[in-house]
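Co-fold these.
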Amino acid sequence: MSALGVAAAVRSGEVRAVDVVEEYLARIETRNGELNAFNLVMADEARAAAAAVDACVAAGDDPGPLAGVPVALKDNMCTQGIATTCSSKILEGWEPPYDATVVARLAAAGAVAVGKTNLDEFAMGSSTENSAFGPTRNPLDTDRVPGGSSGGSAAAVAADLAAISLGSDTGGSIRQPAAFCGVVGMKPTYGVVSRYGLIAFGSSLDQIGPFSTSVADSAAVLEVIGGHDPFDSTSIDAPAFDLRSVLGRGVDGMRIGILRELSGGTGSVDGISPDVQARAAAAAEALEAAGARVQEVSVPSATLGLSAYYLVAPAEASSNLSRFDGVRFGLRVDAPTTGEMMTATRTAGFGPEVKRRIMLGTYALSAGYYDAFYGKALKVRTLMLAEFASAYEQVDLLLTPTAPTTAFRLGERTADPMTMYVNDVCTIPSNLTGHPGISVPFGVGDDGMPVGIQLLGPALSEPTIYQAAAVLEASAPHPGGKEGR
Amino acid sequence: MSERITRNEVIHVARLARLSLTDTEIDEFTGQLGDILEHAADVEALDVGDIEPTSLPLPMTNVLRADVRRASLARDDFLTQAPASEAGQFRVPPILGEEP
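Predicted complex below.
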């Protein structure tokens, strides 16, 4: 059942939230051993929250738009009194003293948090293999990765271990795993969803968004978690979107651009596999058949996104992760002096990919290299903003594949960091520009694994994106989302 | 192996980042960081002289809140989560190797 279906049934009293949550906890019990989607299952808290929702319904009060909907939270979002690990050893034993704004808003809307999901350590990765708690597996083929870094959240929804989940997207970490697991994943405009209580990776890039099995569920979750938050100084001072009202409007007359540099043909970056290219072409045709005007659009600087990102994101990470020094939270490895304690703690607590990015970022920010690398990467962002702005004068939305390939096999890309990084080539530009992007499942590749199609738009174009995403969903060759389809 | 970053630079950067690397890790990172920087050569080579840098994608100025007193989180809730605390403060080993 969809999240909105669960909420409607619980609100009307037709179904009890406690029964819904038991059903989900039982499924988690059965599948999580194999999938490793959850770092922590919040069974007691979930049962108590569900009982409170039922009590609210029984009393005739409004339990909220997501009443009784089981939700999984990426384990880089703070939950008061409940371990929050970022899938890192360095946060061992730490229980945040407060809830992230998104966690509080979901609870206030009646959603029931069932657990914290696995991720690449500190959200650094594209496969959820860089976790201190072991890799998550793709529910559609357990020899394959679920994508990353929000792989646990994507796998949880794809296997119906949660009706919806939250992820965070710094370079594609919601959209790429959504594509790999055959679910819907949305990265909103930077500043639409509060980052208060999200443990920071790249502060100018990070944005929280939902995973779901349908476009309507995605819109419903964004309506709940979006909107201004005074606790996040980068939060846009505007109310949450009204999104569900636009879903049935169709795309008649909408202008959609195929982004040449990220679509695999002439003038594109390399590495986008032919079966994925074919699905993207079919998606464009489907939108055209529904009345959209489709044309090719060029954004030359999109090819620079990957390079700029792997300077900006590690630079911000090296600064953000300096707070993990054994003084205030989590792990401490004892040593005779504070300096030695900090080095010993960080050396023992961080995994190899996190160390690699801290090293890269520290280098890019260090004296003598700042202007050549970090400074230039920031100028590339300006260039990209200008070129995307002119693209959005020609079209309303841009279309690309979400990822260059379908889900790859575990271990296939762990040896060489660059082969992992290129996974994000299509998703990174909208993090650098702060623009929204959604991934919608649209059929399968030659290997039978799902292909995601990405729709991009200018800042605050979420209503237009959801409007077109609903059309893509309706015309997709498979219902999309659940395994065993 | 790329020569964009030297072994000594890797050792220097690790010290700045407070990470202690084994010899194997230093070799590995020298190669891997070199490859990544090689990929970033397209950015490094770009002529972007008069373009203003963008550090935050959306136009935002500093945000101030109203000067009104409000409750904050309790100090002890943070201190109990720290590896060590004493007398309402975080406790750390001696700094600069001196006895406390």
